[in-house]
Amino acid sequence: MKKWFAVIGDPIAQSKSPEMHNAWYEQEKVDATYIPVHVKPENLQQAVASFKLLGASGWNVTIPHKQTIIPFLDELDELAKKMGAVNTVVRTADGKLKGYNTDGPGFVKSLEAAIGTSKRTEPVLLIGAGGAARGIAFALQMVGYKNITIANRTVEKAQRIVDEMNAGVAITIQQAEENLDTYRIFIQTTPAGMSTGDFALPFSLEKFPTGAIAADIVYNPLMTPFLQAAEQKGATIVNGLGMFVHQGAIAYEHWLGNYPNTNAMIARLTEQLG
Ligand code: ATR
Q1: Domain Quinate/shikimate 5-dehydrogenase/glutamyl-tRNA reductase spans what residues (predicted)?
Q2: Which of 103, 100, 52 lies closest to 76 in space, CA to CA?
Q3: Nearest of 14, 71, 31 to residue 48 by alpha carbon
Q4: What is the pLDDT of residues 197-252, one digit of tens each?
Q5: Rounded to the nearest whole angstrom, what is the distance from the C-alpha of residue 129 to the centroid of ligand 1?
Q6: With a 6 A CB cut-off, is 209 part of the ligand 1 pocket?
Q7: Which ligand 1 atom minimizes the distance to the CA of 127?
Q8: 122 close to 114: Cβ distance less than 8 angstroms
Q9: 24, 53: one domain
Q10: 78 annotated as a binding-site residue
Q11: Nearest to 254 by CA among 58, 3, 86, 103
Q12: Contact in structure between 39 and 7 (CB atoms under 8 Å)
């Protein structure tokens, strides 16, 4: 029987996930379909019950449901539990609903597709301390990154993540600016440079070292002001599209058992966004 999957959110029309997953089903010859479903916050519980009744094999969860869906699920994997946020639901063989969070791990896959796995001891500067930064920090720690500093405008938020990780250091943006040349891997997680955003880079790159690694989680535009400035200093650039594609690929693997082709998908979406 044909399987079906979905992404739920409010709003949902802008999501690229249906296009991505349906293209993978076609490539991999999987008899399945993936649909966007607009679910308002007040209808979330009913939506989950309906999906269960109608036999969805799994679905993605986006804003504003990532936290609020948790009471309606039967179990959570370790990272989703730690995050208190779910972006992927899997209906298990015995009909239970299990929540995962593939956002942070998607970022790590994207980063390591570019730089390999041999740099896990190098000093990382994570810029920003919102939900996205928190997921990335936990995911980096889980695969063995040893040296993580989190810089944020509101330093208390960075400190909270460091406390939760029981590792790392929290600093202000100003401290980061002054010591930029002591880091090798830079991860920009604030909305700076988003096409819809209204503010520029929240810090100066004057002391950005040469030949470092610079990643951004923003993918519209693909080249953010941060990546442009880093590239001028000879950095290896990782844009935010890989994180989006790999979070989807990890979800796909949870549902269907194999890892789909991410390179072709990144090329396809790059062309669209380019
Ligand atoms: P997300 O869940 O997508 O990570 P978020 O939780 O709103 O989004 O986090 C946004 C991040 O961008 C935060 O680190 C925020 O800094 P504060 O914690 O100090 O608010 C950062 N940010 C947003 N606007 C900023 C600005 N104008 N200058 C500097 N940092 C900014």
Answers
A1: 120-191
A2: 100
A3: 71
A4: 555 676 788 899 999 999 999 998 899 889 999 999 999 999 999 999 999 999 99
A5: 7
A6: no
A7: 14
A8: no
A9: yes
A10: yes
A11: 58
A12: no
